[in-house]
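Obj.: predict assembly geometry.
Materials: sequence records (below).
Method: joint structure prediction, all chains together.
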Amino acid sequence: MIGDYTYDQFFSILAMQGFAGLILFSVFVLMALGLAIIFGQMGVINMAHGEFMILGAYVTWGVSLFVTSFAPALFPIYFFFAMALAFCASFTLGVFVEWAMIRHLYRRPLDTLLATWGLSLILQQTYRSVFGAREVGVSLPDWMMGSLPLTDIIEVPINGLFVMALTTIIAVAVALLMYKSRWGKQVRAVTQNRVMAGAVGIDTKRVDRMTFGLGCGIAGIAGSAFTMIGSTGPTAGQLYIVDTFLVVVFGGAGSLIGTIASAFAISQAQSTMEFFLSGSMAKVLTLLTVVGILMLRPQGLFTLKIRR
Amino acid sequence: MPAASITRFPRHDAIAFAVLAVLILAVFPLALDIFRLNLVGKYLTYAFVAVGLVLCWGYGGILSLGQGIFFGLGGYCMAMFLKLEASSPENTAIQSTPGIPDFMDWNQVTELPWWWMPFNSFPLALIAILLVPTAFAYLIGAAMFKRRVGGVYFAIITQAVAAILTILIVGQQGYTGGINGMTDLRTLLGWDIRTDSAKLVLYFVNAALLLGVILVAVLVKRSKLGRILIAMRDKEDRVRFSGYDVANFKIFVFCLAAAFSAIGGAMFALQVGFMSPSFVGIVPSIEMVIFCAVGGRQSIFGAAYGALLVSYAKTAFSESFPELWLFAMGGLFIAVVMAFPNGLAGIWKSHVEPLLPRLFNRLRPLPAVTPAASEAAAE
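Observations (raw structure tokens):
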């Protein structure tokens, strides 16, 4: 017996909270991957990252409305186009933002922070004016509803499983892209030594633009996945942005493995504590621990050896 | 021409100081009614934060996205004292536990927590207003700067701390008043702060304190410390190799900025009559940075004008076009970074100042033209 629970119940609670933590983990990973790529390579902090995510969510919502009214036959699989479209929309906006704003500010990383914050305010208000201040939700196809019973007490929701599978696929795809493709090699070269990379003929500006676009595009997919587990409002992106920054910094900038590990640690800590403490105290304790560890170990969990 | 610039600086600062003093001590009180004057007083409390940010960010190169922490801590320390005074057993006789603040009673707290006790005494509260935020800033600063963490990392961590503090204040409703904050603050040592005459007095106290803070900031800027700060911002390693302990200078300036913000926060609580978490978190903290950026991140006086102008614009916009305000604010962030990195002070320096000597010469054709002025005119 632990407290008022039997061991069986206690174990089930831990498992369910762990599963809730895994869903949070998926959202963190999808958001943080894009941020980590951008931050690792360019040292740019994109404060509008949450708004790129929300763009993906609104695109998914739009597609779901379109499909239900014009092509109901496609409804069971609409998520797949929606995701592709969300990626394209966020990617395009990302490339545009890089061209119009970020590339002028590479030498002033603190100023990028302020400029992208301005961008996030503008995007938020745009969403509010276009889509309304109310939160919107998409309707899930039938096969995504319901849950799988694992034991008598433990049940896992199918949409959560889907989001996790999606996260795994995206994370693997990003890892392949970064470590196996020619383009990834260029990105890593620019991260490690920008000047030398330029000297051997890599178009560093183009790599920067594509990386920024890709990071934003992944945020778009994150938004698309986000609609499956929650509803979307104009300011929903801001709720996650601080956590995501901490995930990236805690993991060690530029390290994909570090990002995933820290997302896992933070999300599990938060959701497990949430059951025993109030939600706000769980969050406070998790964030405080992370900040505390960062003060002792500022370079984060995993570090990349980089010559600056 | 270093010699000329050294002799020129003090006079410049003296004139700018006099202009600001006349504006906030004479022009505003004469031109505005008490309601508007109280609003201006509220805007000026943000100027404390902005002046601190000029030292910390403009000169020291440390961008803190968590100045709301210190503004909030200062404000809460003042609000806790005022709240305890407003919650005397006579005033709160209808509560189930008289003598404790109303929000504690609503949240089934029956006893005043120990850390509220010092706020029964005014001198202790005043000390807390300065000490608590400064000590907190020292803690953050010492942990970060000694390990050579700076730049973007520092900005993110201060932002995270601001977020944590807000969640904590909102979550611990029974001890902090939660999301509504501490409302219904009435008297300071028996003196009703809600009357018009009290508001007028508080406005002048606030203005005088702001001028004092600006004076301290100008002194810091003109001292050797100020020069080291600027050197540190531009080439940190070179300063370190010259034998200075860079971390200590950074900690000092961060603590100073925190103390300034705390004074602003305390005056805010006094003038506005409440304090809530909406002045602590991420959004207010980053807005405080924009006050400083609009005024000119390297201009102490510009910061005061920046705080006044942006807050005024915010009030004016939100009254008439609430939808447009976020667009305007977002545009302001982008414009001030991309087009006017030195803010209003930069525009003044490059566009208005060169015209002044010509203007003076036209008004008084004969008398003394200082070498400095003729230089500027020749450019």
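Conclusions so far: Chain A has eleven helices and two strands.
To do: check interface contacts against the pulldown list.
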